[in-house]
Design a protein that fits this description.
By secondary structure, the protein is mostly helical. The protein has helices spanning 22-49, 56-81, 92-125, 127-133, 136-162, 179-183, 191-224, 229-258, 265-290, 293-308; strands at residues 9-12, 89-91, 171-172.
Length: 309
């Protein structure tokens, strides 16, 4: 291994649940994973094939669904397999790859949700210039920037971690390899890793939250200036799904990193990780489809087309 590392694998303790409930949890998480895949894949398909959904909002929604698939697939299959093996191990390189893929999804989603709030702000507060500002090229450019940052951040975390020394112990009290838990096991100097981690998770997170809050304050002010109640209702409905996703996503992460120190770190970390790796990716397509007539209409058209065939 690199830099004197004597560890070839890590042991994942998982959720530390009683053995008698393993099968029940396996079924629950398997069903949730299948729902997540089906829901997000449907969103990806309809946003890329239905001409009526050829708008910036649905372009970014397709990106969000792809990120949810990436985040969930990077962690859940391995967690499901570990329910039935006595030794819940993952190779060193497998751990680094898992960290890379998961971090790509998480860091990219931070910025993507911010871009989606900017899209809603322009649609509500500057509708006359909306189509010119949020052109197809602009959306592709913003998406490329968001994905590039996520890839750059995860590449640094994964590559820098792979060159650290791990002398033991090799036990991770989690159900997947997450950067903070892996860094805690290194016997090398991880100050640079920790500094970059603080920047991406804290500074970037705060900047994104501030930008989202400002955009929604301006949106609320603009909506309240609309005279007709029907117009207000329509304006609020266009951003209701997004703000729900933002509250769920950022709410869990804020609690994870800013919770009271009296709470048990290991148990709380795993419970919160279940929310942002399984629950939220499953809820995203449901929130956007159930509250959106255009998405529901597109899904109905696909179903009817398949039935006629």
């Amino acid at each position: 291994m690199n830099n004197g590392t004597s560890i070839s694998e890590f042991i994942l303790l998982g959720l530390c649940n009683p053995p008698e409930v393993d099968f029940i949890l396996f079924l629950v998480f398997l069903v949730m994973y299948i729902i997540t895949l089906i829901g997000n894949i449907i969103i990806i398909i309809i946003t890329n094939t239905d001409p009526t959904l050829n708008t910036p909002m649905y372009f970014f929604l397709g990106n969000l669904s792809l990120l949810d698939v990436i985040c969930t697939t990077s962690t859940v299959p391995n967690m499901l397999a570990n329910f039935f093996v006595p030794k819940k191990s993952i190779s060193f390189h497998g751990c680094v790859i898992q960290m890379f893929v998961f971090t790509v999804g998480m860091d990219t989603e931070f910025l993507l949700l911010t871009v989606m709030s900017l899209d809603r702000y322009l649609a509500i507060c500057n509708p006359l210039r909306y189509k010119n500002i949020m052109s197809k090229n602009s959306c592709i450019c913003m998406s490329a920037i968001v994905w590039s940052f996520g890839l750059s951040s995860s590449t640094f975390h994964a590559s820098s971690t792979s060159w650290l020394s791990f002398c033991g112990p090799n036990i991770i009290n989690h159900f997947f390899c997450e950067v903070p838990q892996v860094l805690a096991l290194s016997c090398s100097d991880t100050s640079l890793n920790q500094l970059v981690l603080i920047f991406t998770d804290l500074i970037l997170g705060l900047i994104c939250i501030i930008c989202i809050c400002i955009s929604y304050v301006l949106m609320v002010v603009a909506i309240l200036c609309i005279r007709s109640s029907e117009g207000k209702k329509k304006a609020f409905s266009t951003c209701a799904s997004h703000i729900t996703v933002v509250v769920l996503f950022y709410g869990t992460l804020i609690f994870a990193y800013f919770r009271p120190s009296t709470l048990s770190a290991s148990d709380i970390d795993k419970e919160i990780a279940v929310i942002y790796t399984i629950v939220i990716p499953m809820l995203n397509p449901i929130l956007y489809s159930l509250r959106n007539k255009e998405v529901k209409g597109s899904i109905e058209k696909i179903v009817m087309r398949k039935m006629l065939i």
